[in-house]
Write a structure and sequence with these properties.
- The structure is a single chain.
- By secondary structure, this protein is an alpha/beta fold.
- 28% of the residues lie in helices and 23% in strands.
- The strands form 4 sheets. The protein has an 8-stranded mixed β-sheet with strand order 12-13-16-17-11-18-10-19, with helices on one face.
- Strand 5, helix 5 and strand 6 form a beta-alpha-beta unit.
- The protein is globular and about 75 Å long.
- The relative contact order is 0.12.
- The structure holds zinc ion.
- The site of zinc ion has 3 residues, from loops.
Length: 487
Amino acid sequence: MTRPRVLFAGLFHETHTFLEGTTALRDFQILRDGDMLRCAGDSSPLGGALETAGAYGWEVLPTVDYRASPSAIVEDGVIETFWQELSQRIPAQVDAVYLVLHGAMVSQSLFDVEGEILARLRKHVGAVPIFGVFDLHANFTQRMADLANCLVAYRENPHTDGRAMARLAADLLQRSLTTRDVPRMHWRHPPLMWPPTGTGTADDPMHALEARARELEAGHPEFWAVNVVAGFSFADTPDTGVSFVIATTGAEAPANAALLELSTLAEQRKTAGNVSDPHLSKAMAALQPLPPGLTVLVEPSDNIGGGAPGDGTGLLRALVQHRIPNAAIAINDPETVRRLSSARKNGQVTVSIGGHGSRLDEGPLSLDVELLWTSDGKFELEDKQSHLASMAGDRFDMGPCAVVRHEGLTILLTSNKTPPFDLGQWRSQGIEPASLSVIVVKAAVAHRRAYDPIAARMLWVGTPGPCTSNLRSLPYRHVRRPIYPLD
Ligand SMILES: [Zn+2]
């Protein structure tokens, strides 16, 4: 066989449709042509797929790779620019296509961006195999199943296997190129959604579903991949939610039977996935009297790593109202930092704090504070192995910062959203988090590497905000009804 010519492209965005504003072209990190090939062997899914491609001796035809962090609805222009750039690079003859996708991308006009791109791509390349890898937080669709041949989902959350699954998908494509067998995908979407906090694969329901999916894969040689897709419930689309996808070269009936079995198992265990964070009033009652050591209050509704603005005022208001001593919180508020730049140090000033980033929040909180100090907000990471290091390298730039105090509460105001994954964020500002009684982190799970070692206890708190675990509090308009847990 001559070297197969395999077209590579990447499109990766988890779209949170309840966030304000839009995601623009400038928010994407874009690789073109030969720059894509430089990822070969790195820790990304694309890097893994390219490494496998090299091992099989494919002629890789790179095109474009667009990636952005989770954020608001994507501007239509981004999709059209992506397609223009991709279509210009499709040669007359290709033997296969390999895609690196997220699977939960939404634009101003399209609920199913990946389905649309697959449709356009299919028109160009004809009946060649289309394979690839995607994030288990995808909102998969019938269109994606009809137009692709074999897409493989991550099987771990947190995603420690993105690269490994990308390599598996490339192995399966090699099998298809060698045997000339081309699988088809079958999809089933039970009427279920789970908040991201309920989709960890160490716990049920995902643990049980993953285990059963692997058994089905082992028991059916005609199944090339059995995917458990947890969905991304913060994207409000007709296909949002849990689904299952099987790529098979066998008959349709056994695939449908397996999909039905997985869907039934998900329905049986649905309540375990509907994790809820204790209401604010309950959490504040549990907070006091304060025990010795540090209590970490976790606010998933304003999870910066999930795309939230990091300026929610839910817990800020509670700390002020309950006059909690020796406490600290970071709020992203560039406007207030700018105002404070001309204020007198140690002077009293009335400022308005946070509450701009989400219509679900109560809005800015007006507060009398003392300005302690200001800084340029740059800090050296203490943990170079952290999630933050993988995003930012050795240093992080919080932008200009101001530290203010209201009674027992210290507030760090930043100008760039700063995921709370490194204690250098506080120590660089002259604040020792371990000596506090209470600290707020705007995260869901990923902060634990930094905070577990210094925390005496950790309390998760439900407040209004775009990354809330309480899906019923979100203003859904497009999800297919009825659906659990809304109905
Ligand atoms: Zn994910």
